[in-house]
Amino acid sequence: MFKYDKDIPDPKGGDFLISEPFLPDPNFERSVVLICENNHEGTFGLVLNKGTDILLEDVLEDEVPFSGTLNVGGPVEQNTLHFIHRLEQSIEDSIEIGNGLFWSGNFEQVKALVRRGDANEENVKFFLGYSGWSEGQLREELDRQSWFVKSGATAKQVFDLEEEALWQSILKDMGGKYKVFSNYPIDPRLN
């Protein structure tokens, strides 16, 4: 195990949680999780770089012509649907998590915006399931140095960077030792 930082801060809503290069959990291998909420009850986040071939209309009973595919938000309750957005239109009950990023909200409004063509894969991401940690669980993982925390995710990073390159791009942007980690091979024996 590598030693990265002695005191990794607790993430807050709108922060990135980035898996360390050799995290052995296949659910989170080289993943970037957008933290939506972290409080005394636990942590809720969505994996940004684990795509699927599933379309929104594949999981809904009504037809919603969304051309983007769904992501796997995490291993918890993969029969649930979640979304984040950067829509300029006000979506009732959305929670701003910072820097033009919003989590959840009135799903009927979002579906109406998709049908009108005002919401698409450039400003909305849908997820099956989520990533969740009970009270104290994420802190234990941070203390074991399984994760890096990057404050202040931006809508541009979330929506404009290629999912396949997101993990590496964010580590490079963090600079220093993180930039070095971004180049680690998935299997160090192949280096």
Structural summary, described in words:
The model has no long low-confidence stretch (mean pLDDT 90). The chain has one domain (16-190): VC0467-like (3-Layer(aba) Sandwich). Helices cover 22% and strands 31% of the residues. It is of the alpha+beta class and 191 residues long. The protein has 6 helices and 10 strands, in the order ββββαββββαβαβααα. Strands 1, 2, 3, 4, 5, 6, 7, 8, 9 and 10 form a 10-stranded mixed β-sheet that branches.
Task: Give the mean pLDDT.
Answer: 90
Low-confidence stretches: none
Which fold name is given in CATH as the topology? VC0467-like
The CATH architecture can be named as 3-Layer(aba) Sandwich
The biggest beta sheet reads: 10 strands, mixed
Global structural class: alpha+beta
Q: How many domains would you count in the coordinates?
A: 1
Q: What is the overall shape?
A: globular
How is the topology of this model organized?
Blueprint: E1 16-19, E2 32-39, E3 42-47, E4 51-55, H1 56-59, E5 69-72, E6 76-85, E7 95-98, E8 101-103, H2 107-116, E9 124-134, H3 137-143, E10 147-150, H4 155-160, H5 166-174, H6 176-181
Parallel strand pairs: 5-9
Antiparallel strand pairs: 1-2, 1-10, 2-3, 3-9, 4-5, 6-8, 6-9, 7-8
Q: Could you list some keywords that capture this structure?
A:
ten-stranded mixed β-sheet, VC0467-like, alpha+beta
Summarize the model shown.
The chain has six helices and ten strands.
